[in-house]
Fold this sequence. Notes:
With about 60 residues, the protein is α+β, with helices and mostly antiparallel strands.
Amino acid sequence: xxxxxxxxxxxxxxxxxxxxxxxxxxxIKAGEFPKPIKLGASSRWSLRAVEAWMSERANAAx
Length: 62
């Protein structure tokens, strides 16, 4: 994680990528989306990891 990275909630991930939580967790299980980082009982994602995933998908579609 870099100094400009931060942890984001599932709701933030959903807003960013436009998918429901069930689909996000299916993709995680299939190794197609970044795994969350557990903080106690909470799951958070690295903003940079989600942005990198989005960039990879955009580049693959181009």
